[in-house]
Amino acid sequence: MNRYTIKDITRPSGGFAMLAVDQREAMRLMFAAAGATTPVTDGVLTDFKVNAARILSPYASAILVDQQFCYRQVVEQKAIASNCAMIVAADAFIPGNGIPVDSVVIDQHVDPQQVKRDGGKALKLLVLWRSDEDPQQRLEMVRAFNQLCHSNGLVSIIEPVVRPPRHGDAFDREEAIIHAAKELGDSGADLYKVEMPLAGKGLQQALLSACRRLNEHINMPWVILSSGVDEKLFPRAVSVAMTAGASGFLAGRAVWSSVIGLPDTEMMLRDLSVPKLQRLGEIVDEMMARR
């Protein structure tokens, strides 16, 4: 059986410069916040995702797509550049308590063999980490996900994202990110996608220390995501995280969020988002060259 490895989703430098367009109800909320005057239909999201894939994938080592809105469409329309690997989100989001993603399970509708036939190289799983929920359940879900990926020759990417506890305990986001890494950083996945410490803000030395602390607990290659980080700060965040041991990024908002809701989306993606993604890729290559 053909088995993919993380080299199949990296740049020639060995670093990761990966684009995410798998946001679901969160993206609908972004369109609404940008002043959409009509209901944000599924078609609006699909069109944006397919356009983003077509225009931005030539500059990414991989692109993360979701089954709900765009996986089939990008495959059928051949929207992903030949030099860019496809990653499919294998997480099903369960809304509740007034938020679009209150809990997550492995999406049983994702067929790993079909993903492979469609040219996919990897699957991704979001793991919500709360201090008052059972760590064994999280670990078992990750183990099952890793088995699903590896038995089908696909790369396994986990994305632990921290959330406040369900029951009233104080929430320290920075400590939670470390605790999640301690728990899941040696869980047998191929790649760990992590929230940027301190949301990328503050003095460079403080960021570097926080990232080095994180690096101590992640026993696999890791990349940062851009949610919660000001897009102007994200290039520095990538550089600092890579200085501390990260191998790149898997990010969406820092690349394309500023064009949501603008007229002529395709032109805006070309004029505004392509240069951002190109620069981020250059940073990844520069940092890998120093190793």
TrEMBL record:
Enzyme class label: lyase
Gene Ontology MF term list: 6-deoxy-6-sulfofructose-1-phosphate aldolase activity
PANTHER family in alphabetical order: SULFOFRUCTOSEPHOSPHATE ALDOLASE
EC numbers for this chain: 4.1.2.57
Name by which UniProt lists this protein: Sulfofructosephosphate aldolase
Tree of life domain: Bacteria
HAMAP family, alphabetized: SFP_aldolase
One of the Pfam families matching this protein, by short name: DeoC
GO biological process, one term: 6-sulfoquinovose(1-) catabolic process
Family membership noted in the UniProt record: Belongs to the aldolase LacD family.
Subunit structure and binding partners: Homotetramer.
Reported function: Cleaves 6-deoxy-6-sulfo-D-fructose 1-phosphate (SFP) to form dihydroxyacetone phosphate (DHAP) and 3-sulfolactaldehyde (SLA).
The species this protein was found in: Mixta theicola
InterPro entries: Aldolase_TIM, DeoC/FbaB/LacD_aldolase, LacD_aldolase, SFP_aldolase_YihT
Catalytic residues as annotated in Swiss-Prot or TrEMBL: 193 (schiff-base intermediate with substrate)
Keywords from the UniProt entry: Carbohydrate metabolism, Lyase, Schiff base
Reactions mediated catalytically: 6-deoxy-6-sulfo-D-fructose 1-phosphate = (2S)-3-sulfolactaldehyde + dihydroxyacetone phosphate
